[in-house]
């Protein structure tokens, strides 16, 4: 959803971001740098420490539950030992599966990599959408460097309040934008009380009505999503294992 990095070529795209404006108010125009990780040497990770707010720990799993208007949604996130090469960068494959009332509706491979400065980048995803157990489409799939798609940062090494960034950019398909709102939040989820968490606001110009707040906590990464669009539905971390 956003992210910039030094020593990497950057494209600049101007987008309109609505910052809590009333109807009829002109949206604020913000220029957001879109970094493109074309230099694989920036991802050697020599001497870099793990980003504890988004750890790519092989074998780690997280399970989330949320009661939506459409039913009970369960999300299982697994950091696999599989790798995918994207623009010369070796990424870690995270498998993300979603069930609605016990029926699988999505099975996605997300591709992440941490750079030498500790920023975690999002370089694409292979999405498989299901209905009644049948693969219906792969809508939402994209890969950095293919068809103009650009990688973004999912978590900075040192998040700063007020930073606005693209987490992913594939024009017309995937244009998630994040903003850091706080860096020392406490959240209560079934898995336990988490402190020192980073809170982000996630939006996309492709769906202006969509608004989510996400919380990333030290040692665990993603712990809570509040979907404002769904009436403040909470997708809470209920179980986690394999994190150091």
Give me the strand/helix succession: EEEEEEEEEEEEEEEEE
Beta-strand content: over 45%
**Could you estimate the helical fraction of the residues in percent?**
under 10%
How many strands, what sense, and barrel or not for the largest sheet? Answer: 15 strands, antiparallel
Instruction: Please work out how many helical segments DSSP would assign.
Output: 0
| Overall number of strands | 17
| Top CATH class | Mainly Beta
| Unreliable stretches | 1-29
CATH fold-type name: YmcC-like fold
Q: Please compute the radius of gyration using only Cα atoms.
A: 17 Å
CATH architecture: Beta Barrel
Q: pLDDT average, as an integer? A: 86
End-to-end separation: 25 Å
The number of distinct structural domains comes to 1
Q: What structural category characterises the helix and strand content?
A: mainly beta
- The outline comes out as globular
Topology of helices and strands:
Blueprint: E1 10-17, E2 28-35, E3 61-68, E4 71-86, E5 89-100, E6 103-114, E7 120-131, E8 134-137, E9 142-143, E10 150-155, E11 164-166, E12 168-169, E13 177-189, E14 192-203, E15 212-217, E16 221-227, E17 233-241
Antiparallel strand pairs: 1-2, 3-4, 3-17, 4-5, 5-6, 6-7, 7-8, 7-9, 7-10, 10-12, 11-13, 13-14, 14-15, 15-16, 16-17
